# Entry
Amino acid sequence: DGGITQSPKYLFRKEGQNVTLSCEQNLNHDAMYWYRQDPGQGLRLIYYSQIVNDFQKGDIAEGYSVSREKKESFPLTVTSAQKNPTAFYLCASSLALYNEQFFGPGTRLTVL
Amino acid sequence: SQQGEEDPQALSIQEGENATMNCSYKTSINNLQWYRQNSGRGLVHLILIRSNEREKHSGRLRVTLDTSKKSSSLLITASRAADTASYFCALYGAGGTSYGKLTFGQGTILTVHP
# Structure
């Protein structure tokens, strides 16, 4: 089955801890994205990657970091510098920029 | 901001009726996309319409784009209870600081009553 997976589905973290969210795709897509969604809101772009070993900041990159060492994988680290990290995080991929995006099921992060 | 603004914020209809959602924006676009999200789930792509296109269809979905008015609409015909979801417009700007960034609106919550 082709698709995009995110793990874990639910994640709990104590304040001051870094946490890494996983995103994997087997669609052979070049571009990958991370979004944050808060209750009742639309999605806001955190980081995106057009190609392996390259990534760009989105609109709300502060307190987050990413890597793109493999085409299939685009992990997101939520650092302790992110002031309000509790949110629903969505990963997506597309064949290239400007194309339709395919989304994973999301990870719900709660900071205790 | 590139963000689209959606109207209405919430829409409640009966099964069989048509549902229309609107999206307005302020800058030039490369393309505009519509997505659907069921509660607590990932988004599903519905339709992509390019800046040089005026109308696209997919099954019961019809999307129009009026670049002179900077607006788009999504029409769902003969709605079903299973269409209950949040619908988002998202747009790719034509360039500059918006390069590569798909910007989402706040969404319209559609409820279809059986």
In short: The mean pLDDT of chain B is 94. The longest strand of chain B covers residues 29-37. Chain B touches chain A through 23 residues (CB under 8 Å). Chain B has no helices and eleven strands.
